[in-house]
Design brief:
Number of strands: 0
Number of helices: 4
Distance between the termini: 24 Å
Shape: elongated
Helix content: 40-55%
Radius of gyration: 19 Å
Strand content: under 5%
């Protein structure tokens, strides 16, 4: 891999160029070891896919996430507000499927 700024050769695991200090063009950001993005799921969703997306991102059981949101709503009233904010802020996974084409 080469730096896009100065042209110096870089190792694949370098985050910054040792010559100019620029951020490395990260091919690993889209590779098989990349961390998945937090998205709302399309399949298996109950309302908006927020709980399923959080469960998928952290590799948790979606039912436990739904119960946690329900408990937060019943005990503190914040669960519904948090769900609505995440519904607005977190993009659906169809956004990333269409934008990468």
């Amino acid at each position: 891999m080469f730096c896009t700024s100065c042209g110096e050769e870089m190792r694949a695991d370098d985050r910054f160029c040792s010559s100019c200090g620029k951020l490395a063009p990260s091919a690993a950001a889209y590779g098989p070891h990349a961390r998945p993005r937090l998205t709302r799921i399309c399949q298996g969703k109950k309302i908006a896919g927020v709980c399923g997306g959080i469960a998928q991102y952290y590799d948790w059981d979606p039912t436990l996430v739904r119960v946690a949101f329900l408990a937060a709503f019943i005990l503190h009233g914040i669960g519904l507000l948090a769900y609505i904010v995440l519904w607005i802020a977190v993009p659906g996974e169809e956004y990333y499927n269409y934008s990468r084409a």
